[in-house]
UniProtKB/TrEMBL annotation:
It is found in: Endoplasmic reticulum membrane. It is a single-pass type III membrane protein. Its EC number is 4.1.2.27. It is an enzyme of class 4 (lyase). The modification N6-(pyridoxal phosphate)lysine is found at K343. GO terms for cellular component: endoplasmic reticulum membrane. Its cofactor is pyridoxal 5'-phosphate. One of its GO terms (molecular function) is sphinganine-1-phosphate aldolase activity. InterPro entries: GrpII_AminoAcid_Decarb, PyrdxlP-dep_de-COase, PyrdxlP-dep_Trfase, PyrdxlP-dep_Trfase_major, PyrdxlP-dep_Trfase_small. Belongs to the group II decarboxylase family. Sphingosine-1-phosphate lyase subfamily. This is Sphingosine-1-phosphate lyase. One of its GO terms (biological process) is sphingolipid metabolic process.
């Protein structure tokens, strides 16, 4: 049955046809398509501005336009290469092997390796972080780790039935680590679980991946976003790139701690997780974990705590009477924790632990493959095969030291840290950034160029970490530094005085590069510079 057309609709159609009849049919066809294209371009521009900010977007656009000028891009590339060459320093690959020797060297390979090792810098007591075990690398705890790794060098926990010893070691390392981080407390829920990984970055990657997939299953989030303080580790940037997660960096407060109110403003329907550190790598300051936990709980999102540095210090520092705020699974809202055993746990390099509040979250970490012709496959971490020797080394480190050993080590490290902090504060030209909660002390200056000071320290054999925003340097205190506190402070005072009396770049120093990178408005150019450096270094 035909329905009658209302008179007003006929009038509207006639009016529309009369109006459009004055235009070419092709124009009528192209116009809506062109409008859609313009709308899409505007949407993309607004998204870029929203993500990067108006200032950064304008700078990027201007720099891209400038590079189109003939000769400019070539000049910029030339200058970048000069900086890359500078960053590489004295690295010379002449004589490096590019193919197998025709005849094997046999045991002489060890002789050549010992010769090469002699070319490494003297790191004992001179490096920020880096080596956490105290003493000489051929005795004491070093010897224990070396022998353990050698004993289990050919084992692989992927083969559960072949190497049950290593499987047990991993389970016990995870359980012991969880215990010092609150798993035995009733408030933790009694379901803390986890796995060993190759380091803090992998632990963070797995925690982010598990949180993403858990929140997708729980809340149906398909466009995940993650919120981190600017002080959070760069591993979160890596995770965001790997797992296609939108990353929001939020400024810290005046005390250099995560700003809870600022983080709250970024939470939306796509937020899967927020992040806190205990302490943060740059300044050794603990974020307000309890407040962040409350925030995560109220929005029913995941909350990861980075304890890669603090996991084997803070629990024992608290027992020693240091004022340590809550930071572990006793805090409601914490869903995962990463903690490195190869730092203050004094295990061999390449050992970390990622922990979860319960198995429901951890299941999203695993990868199970059912359609492979090679058989059924399941793996708990990013790596398939894993070095059993490292797992065994972590177990040996923890068992050999015990709680009393970690208490004693923490006492020595914390006391050395306080002496260094006091010594820095006594140098008029320097100031300590924030109020360090642990064993990382960052310092800057309004009087001298702190990067020039760092260059002078480097000439004296020290290897500290250069920081930015604000320009500063930090030292991560380990057992290696306990006997050399006064030597470090003297060298620091002398370096400050040298720069004060003779300001200006040090020949062969990196101060000009760090200074320029910090002031360079086009951060994409800085990023390109880093990629070029890495590409030429690998």
């Amino acid at each position: 049955m035909a329905f009658p057309i209302p008179p007003w609709l006929n009038q509207y159609r006639a009016s529309a046809n009369s109006f459009l009849s004055q235009y070419e049919p092709l124009i009528l066809l192209i116009t809506p398509l062109f409008s859609l294209l313009i709308a899409r371009i505007l949407q993309s521009i607004f998204l870029v501005i929203h993500e990067r900010g108006l200032k950064a977007t304008i700078i990027s656009f201007v720099m891209s336009a400038i590079k189109l000028v003939p000769g400019v891009k070539k000049y910029i590339d030339s200058e970048k290469q000069k900086i890359v060459d500078k960053l590489q320093g004295s690295s010379n690959r002449d004589g490096w092997r590019t193919e197998l020797p025709k005849s094997g060297l046999g045991d002489n390979a060890l002789v050549q390796m010992r010769d090469e090792k002699q070319k490494d810098v003297t790191w004992q007591g001179k490096c920020s972080g880096t080596v956490y075990i105290g003493g000489n690398e051929n005795e004491g705890h070093f010897s224990l780790i070396n022998e353990t790794c050698s004993m289990f060098a050919h084992t692989n926990p992927l083969h559960l039935s072949v190497f049950p010893s290593v499987v047990r070691f991993e389970a016990e390392v995870v359980a012991m680590t969880a215990a010092i981080l609150g798993s035995k407390e009733k408030v933790s829920g009694g379901q803390i679980c986890g796995n060993m990984t190759s380091g803090g970055t992998e632990s963070i990657l797995l925690a982010v991946k598990s949180s993403r997939d858990y929140m997708k299953a729980k809340k149906g989030i398909t466009k995940p976003e993650m919120i981190i303080p600017v002080s959070a580790h760069s591993a979160y940037d890596k995770a965001a790139q790997y797992f296609k997660i939108k990353l929001w960096r939020v400024p810290v407060n005046k005390e250099f701690r995560a700003d809870v109110k600022a983080i709250k403003r970024y939470i939306n329907k796509n937020t899967i997780m927020i992040v806190g550190s205990a302490p943060g790598f740059p300044h050794g300051i603990i974020d307000p974990i309890e407040e962040l936990g409350d925030l995560a709980s109220s929005y029913q999102i995941c909350f990861h705590v980075d304890l890669c540095l603090g996991g084997f210090v803070l629990p024992f520092a608290r027992k020693l009477g240091y004022p340590v705020p809550p930071f572990d699974f006793t805090v409601q809202g914490v869903t995962s924790i990463s903690v490195d055993v190869h730092k203050y746990g004094l295990a061999p390099k390449g050992t970390s632990v990622v922990l979860y509040r319960n198995r429901e979250i951890r299941k999203h970490q695993f990868v199970a493959v059912t359609e492979w012709t090679g058989g059924l496959y399941v793996s708990p971490t990013i790596a398939g095969s894993r070095a059993g020797g490292l797992i065994a080394g972590a177990w040996a480190a923890m068992i050999s030291l015990g709680s009393e050993g970690y208490l004693e080590n923490t006492k020595e490290v914390m006391e050395a840290s306080k002496r260094i902090q006091k010594g820095i504060q006594d140098i008029p030209e320097l100031f300590v950034i924030g109020r360090p909660d642990m064993s990382i002390i960052a310092f800057g200056s309004d009087v001298v160029d702190i990067f020039e000071v760092n260059d002078i320290l480097s000439s004296k054999g020290w290897h500290l970490n250069a920081l930015q925003r604000p320009n500063s340097v930090h030292i991560c205190v380990t057992l290696q530094h306990v006997p050399v506190v006064q030597i470090f402070l003297k060298d620091l005072r002398d370096s400050v005085q040298t720069v004060k009396e003779n300001p200006g770049p040090v020949n062969g120093g990196f101060a000009p590069i760090y200074g320029a990178a910090g002031k360079m408005p086009d951060r994409v150019m800085v990023q390109d510079l880093l990629v070029e450096f890495m590409d030429s270094s690998c």
